[in-house]
Amino acid sequence: MSASPVLPSSPAGSPSAGSPSAPGPSQAELLDFVRHVAADAELVASLPIDPEGRTWVRLDGPGGSEAWLIGWPPGTGTGWHDHGKSLGAFMTAAGELRENSLAVRLPTDGWKTLELNAGVDRERRLTAGAGRAFGRYHVHEVLNESPVRHAVSVHAYYPPLPLMRRYSRSGQTLRLEQVERPADWQ
Ligand SMILES: [Fe+2]
């Protein structure tokens, strides 16, 4: 797959990754971190697994970033969402995940529904040891499509997520459903 995960406004490794006054970790550094954690078999195995739902453990990410180890039972997924102005990286540590993403930057505010152009969809299948970094306003959904196998992944975001926008999708129509704040998921 040749889809570029990086939008022109946020090149990989850009020193502008954080706020202008205090540059934080770059996409490349976050990707290095999640790769390192995903290779730590003992840490990955320490994640409690629940066959009924996702599980997670918070990690100390580099440079003040927010990081998580997440367990995905078969058939679970996130739904479409973005990460606001945070950039990030994630990597599969066990099992296989699928990422559906949009190769366009959406207007950030002022819309409730948006018609996506044809050809903006990207799909990745991420087996253990495979991952990606992403820039600000990246829109995606992550799923464990396996009918039988649990998956585990490692995620890091910088700055720590101030919000996530949740979307529903019907065909090419994307609809903003909800804006979640940290209090909603911690
Ligand atoms: Fe995400």
From TrEMBL:
Domain of life of the source: Bacteria
Recorded GO MF terms: dioxygenase activity
- Gene3D superfamilies documented for this protein: Jelly Rolls
Q: Does the keyword Iron apply?
A: yes
Which keywords accompany this UniProt record?
Answer: Dioxygenase, Iron, Metal-binding, Oxidoreductase
Write down a Pfam family by its short name. Answer: CDO_I
Q: Does this UniProt record's set of keywords contain Oxidoreductase? A: yes
Positions of region (Disordered): 1-27
Q: Where is the composition biased (Low complexity)?
A: 1-26
Q: Which family does it belong to?
A: Belongs to the cysteine dioxygenase family.
Question: In its UniProt entry, what is this protein called?
Answer: Cysteine dioxygenase
Q: What is the lineage of its organism?
A: Bacteria, Bacillati, Actinomycetota, Actinomycetes, Kitasatosporales
